[in-house]
Write a structure and sequence with these properties.
By secondary structure, the protein is an all-alpha fold. Helix 1 crosses helix 6, helix 4 runs parallel beside helix 7 and helix 7 packs across helix 8.
Length: 218
């Protein structure tokens, strides 16, 4: 009896096909139909699973985040926050480099349309949040918002450097090192802003509800 692949299996197969095809052709010229053909999957299976081309790109990007998080296990326990973040994020760029022709095509294609640019920006927010979590920084607090936004913007900038870099990634490493130092200053400002906002939200209100005022007058 034939068993329909799970949605995750479908995504995995399509992601592998995406890396193969994008190494040969421009990403924006590859259709979902092309990816299905290369994966020997039917288009209706993708439709049933709600899988589109952006979902495949998202899966590929998420796989790079996993490479980054796995690398976190190998960082020395006593490493500084800067060094730990550098090693973790650099592992992601090593993952990009391992499939450079494919990722050059995908990242260039993502920059062609507003919708794909927005999707890429959203993915960088996710990457930044995971990178900070891997450094022991909680990202579910109000004061973490500035950290995530700042790091995501800087990672996008370094990603652009990587696209112009050579095989030794020296420019990428230098840009990442500098941007993480700049990010540390941003974090300090963001922390102070977050503390002020948290204090503002926690401040008790001295206004009495209208209903209570009416009740006291009766």
């Amino acid at each position: 009896m034939h068993t329909r692949p799970s949605d995750l299996e479908l995504l995995s197969q399509l992601a592998r096909a995406a890396l193969d095809l994008s190494a040969q052709r421009a990403w924006e010229q590859i259709s979902l139909f092309d990816l299905c053909n290369a994966s020997e999957l039917s288009l209706d299976a993708c439709a049933a699973a709600g899988i589109g081309k952006q979902a495949i790109a998202d899966r590929l990007d998420h796989d790079l985040d996993l490479v980054m998080l796995k690398a976190a296990k190998g960082v020395e326990a006593g490493a500084s926050h800067h060094d730990r973040l550098f090693e973790i994020v650099m592992a992601r760029f090593d993952g990009l480099e391992d499939a450079r022709p494919s990722w050059m095509s995908i990242l260039h294609g993502d920059g062609q349309e507003p919708a794909t640019r927005l999707a890429r920006s959203a993915r960088r927010l996710r990457t930044a949040a995971w990178a900070l979590e891997a450094c022991g920084v909680s990202t579910d607090q109000l004061m973490s918002t500035a950290r995530i936004l700042g790091l995501a913007r800087r990672l996008s900038q370094v990603e652009n450097v990587w696209m112009r870099d050579g095989g030794d990634l020296s420019k990428t490493m230098a840009a990442l090192d500098q941007t993480l130092r700049d990010h540390a200053d941003w974090v300090q400002r963001g922390t102070r802003l977050g503390e002020r906002l948290s204090a503002l939200f926690k401040r008790p209100s001295h206004r009495q509800p209208h209903a209570d005022t009416k009740a006291s007058e009766v």
